[in-house]
Amino acid sequence: MSTRKVVTAGNSHWFWAWRDRVRDPTLTLMLIVQGLIILVGAPCAAIGYPGSRIVLELLFSIFAFLIILVSRGAITTAVATVAMIATLAGVFLTVIAPSTSTVLLALSVRSQYPVIE
Q1: pLDDT tens digit sequence for 29-68
Q2: Is the dihedral of CA 100, 79, 85, 95 positive or negative?
Q3: What distance in Å separates the CA atoms of residue 27 and residue 113, rounded to the nearest whole number?
Q4: Biggest alpha carbon distance in the chain?
Q5: What b/e readout covers 43-80, taking b as 16+ CB neighbours within 10 angstroms?
Q6: Which of 55, 38, 45 is nearest to 106 (CA)?
């Protein structure tokens, strides 16, 4: 049964109608967020600006949320939700208690490419 038929079936499926309405604007927002990630977030994080890594992770989280809004099926939505929760948990753990390998990678990149102040 297609999504359009479910929408017209009755008021009990208002959720699918809401998702159909926001699908097109969400795709536009996804394009904008991808542009910000590629053209602004990643270069700033590579250079090593303070706070840029957190902003980049926030942009990735926004993108993951938009994927949840665009996804059509229940399984796809569940997989996207689990992936977003795992990503947020990983970011939280990295910020709170970074592992030794993360610290060594960050220090090695900074020593190879010093930040010009």
Answers
A1: 999 999 999 998 888 888 878 888 888 888 888 998 898 8
A2: positive
A3: 36
A4: 62
A5: ebbeeeeeebbebbbebbebbbbbbbbbbeeeeebeeb
A6: 45
